[in-house]
Design a protein that fits this description.
Blueprint: E1 3-7, E2 10-12, E3 18-25, E4 33-39, E5 46-52, E6 58-60, E7 68-73, E8 78-83, E9 92-99, E10 113-114, E11 118-122
Parallel strand pairs: 2-11
Antiparallel strand pairs: 1-3, 3-8, 4-5, 4-9, 5-6, 7-8, 9-10, 9-11
Length: about 120
């Protein structure tokens, strides 16, 4: 059974940091790219970042580039998203998703499997 489980969300003040994790199981990790997406109330789901577990290629949206860092631990089948200098507009439910082939895209419709999401709230 394929599973993606996010963790690490929470409430943080503006300027603070959080580290999200996505634990994957039930598929061959190296054959997939893992993407992080977020969805705020009343808004469409948007791509944040992705990483290819095949060759380590990464990509970031303009809104998070320079503040967020995605990384993958292929030995532990885990992808992390380090989020620094958080802003109130980063508030959303964050999801990780897996797609094959491991080329990555910001298009959520290309992803095969999804986690249940974790809430990130940036507020003073």
């Amino acid at each position: 059974e394929v599973q993606l489980v996010e963790s690490g969300g929470g409430l943080v003040q503006p300027g603070g940091s959080l580290r999200l994790s996505c634990a994957a199981s039930g598929f061959t990790f190296d054959d997939y790219a893992i993407g992080w997406f977020r969805q705020a109330p009343g808004k469409e789901r948007e791509g944040v970042s992705w990483i290819s577990n095949f060759d380590g290629t990464t990509h970031y949206s303009d809104s998070v580039r320079g503040r967020f860092t995605i990384s993958s631990d292929n030995a532990k089948n885990t992808v992390s998203l380090q989020m620094n200098r958080l802003k109130p507009e980063d508030t959303a439910v964050y999801y990780c998703a897996a797609m094959r082939p491991p080329i990555g895209t910001m298009n959520p419709h290309m992803y095969d499997y999804w986690g249940q999401g974790t809430q990130v709230t940036v507020s003073s």
